[in-house]
Design goal:
GO molecular function, one term: endonuclease activity
CATH class: Alpha Beta
Organism: Streptomyces chlorus
Shape: globular
Radius of gyration: 15 Å
Number of strands: 7
CATH superfamily: tt1808, chain A
Number of helices: 1
InterPro entries: Nuclease_put_TT1808, Restrct_endonuc-II-like, Uma2
Protein name: Uma2 family endonuclease
CATH architecture: Alpha-Beta Complex
Structural class: mainly beta
Mean pLDDT: 90
Keywords: Endonuclease, Hydrolase, Nuclease
């Protein structure tokens, strides 16, 4: 079981009983990379989400100001990866994500504080 930073599901899924959402109902996940544990987002989660059949994954990295849009799950990886930077309008399946308001960690790229 994983807890993404943000998840896209059909609204009807929210009416179901229980605390967890069936992964087959998840349309997309979004992860914001933690400065203390980036390998979790780029490694473990990026292998588990496609294995669960989640069609779209977005990794937002405030350490570097970069974004990766992943799609086309194939086993434990995504076949497609598209790079973006903060400020881009990022396609994520049938949606677009405006990243113009995203900010990097710290004022000068310092990972220990958030601006």
């Amino acid at each position: 079981m994983r807890r993404p930073d943000a998840v896209v599901v059909p609204e009807s899924v929210l009416d179901e009983e229980g605390l967890a959402i069936d992964a087959t109902q998840v349309l997309a996940v979004i992860e914001v990379v933690s400065p203390s544990n980036p390998n979790n987002d780029y490694g473990e989660k990026l292998a588990e989400y496609p294995a669960m059949g989640i069609p779209h994954s977005l990794i937002v990295d405030p350490r570097t100001g970069t974004i990766e849009a992943h799609s086309a799950p194939c086993g434990n990886r995504y076949s497609d990866k598209d790079p973006y930077i903060f400020g881009d309008t990022v396609p994520l399946g049938p949606w677009t994500v405006d990243t113009s308001a995203l900010r990097r960690y710290g004022r000068d790229g310092d990972e220990t504080s958030r601006a």
